[in-house]
Every structure is written in C-alpha cells, then in structure tokens.
Predict the 3D structure of the following.
Amino acid sequence: MAVWPPSPGRTWIIDLDGVIWLAGQAIPGSSEGVEALRTSGSKVLFATNNAAPTVDELVARLDNVGITAAQEEIVTSAMALATMLEPGSTALAVADGGLLEALAMRGVTVVDDGPCDAVVVGWTHRFDFELLARASRTVRGGARLVGSNEDPTHPTPHGLEPGAGSILAAVATASGVDPEVAGKPHAPMAALLKARAPDAAVMVGDRPATDGRMAEALGVPYALVYSGVTAEGSAPSQPAHAASAADLGALVRAVLAST
Ligand SMILES: [Mg+2]
C-alpha cells in the first residue's frame, strides 16, 4: 500500500526534467531539497526519460545545479531500453550519446542501415527525412521498433520543445507498427527502478502520464510538482497524486515538517 508521507531512511525516486532543472537550468530549491532529504537520512535515485545525455553528462549537469550524485544514483530510459535487446544483436539508432552508450554497454552493435534486429529511437537533434526514411524502411524490413520514451514534449525555460515521443511517433507512423517503449511508465523502467531501489518510498515528477503511472507500477505514492509540464490546477484526476507542491524544495519541506 502506498503510504504518505514517506518514512525517513527510504529512497525517493526523483524525475529530472521539470523537477531538478529546466533544460539544464536549476529549478530554485531543488538542490536544497535533495540536500535536506539526504540530511534527514533518506536516499535519492534520479530517474529520467531523457535518453540523450550519457551518465557522466548527467552527473556533470547535476553537479552544475549543486547536486552531487554517483553514477549509481541515476537511471535512464536508455538503460531500460538496452535491457530489451539481446547482447550481440544489431540496431539502427535514431538517438544521441546516452542511448548509444547504453547499447554499447549491453553489447549491441549500432549499424548505419538495415537489415538489423531493432530500430531504437531516443531524443536527438539529428532527425530529418532521410533518417526517418531509413528507420521506417528498416522496421518494414522486419526490425523491432523500440523507443526510449513517449513524452511528446520536454519543458524548457522558453516553453515546450518536441520530445522523443514526437520522433518515435513519426517513425512508428511511417513504419506502420506500434512501438515497444522502455521508459516511464513502462515495464522495463519499472524493473530497473525496482532493482535499484527496492525500498522506494515515493516517485516525484512533473508529468502524471509518465511519473504518476510509474508510481502506480511501482506501488509507491506519486508526488506531483508544478515546476515542469503540469500547471497548478491542470493535473488530471488519474493517476491520483498523494501530494503536490510548487516544486521539489517545497515538497521536501512539507514532508520533513510532518514526519
Ligand atoms: Mg519531467
């Protein structure tokens, strides 16, 4: 049963985009919130659907906003996607460094064109008609279509930009298939998070469709923050959230004041 507020000493699973930062710019109070959690004896595990950055890049970005994190404290949809492919298999990648890194660690060989075992799609700036044509042709030739995540957008200080889900939708439409998806709220990410944080106490995130559903899959409470893609007052009734706050700092202050 999902218990609120979470008891001290357990792991808070925390989304990155829209919770810790917006396009790499710190959301005020987020580093203080993480610090206060750690001081209180809780642990943190960062869980992002962004498959583009490498783990080292994420560690550096966290450092830039005042948060020290070990590689083991980061789980990405790229890592989840890699678990869906067999070591020794081949993949055409519509993706940036983080997903390429995860594929390499899994022993998957990235190829420039099909035929191959899978077309994998993450977030990338390098997306054009030629790549869309090559990817869809490869899927029509028999490759699996596997996406890192379905987020249609991601939040930036200048508004919403297209997310990996928009790229995946283009490839899926051109290919005529439904994609398999790795990231929040899907089973591969749930399995990774359960393995990394069997003591998870809460999932904090700005997007109910991914973070809220992920909390449901993990059987932990969902805490919604309004610092990303969801404006206060506009949250859907489902999935339900156990708590909400303007941002992570305010959420942590409220929880620590009540326990
Ligand atoms: Mg988010």
Observations:
- The pocket of magnesium ion is lined by residues 15, 17-19, 205-207, 228 (CB under 6 Å).
- The CA atoms of residues 148 and 182 lie 5 Å apart.
- The longest helix spans residues 129-140.
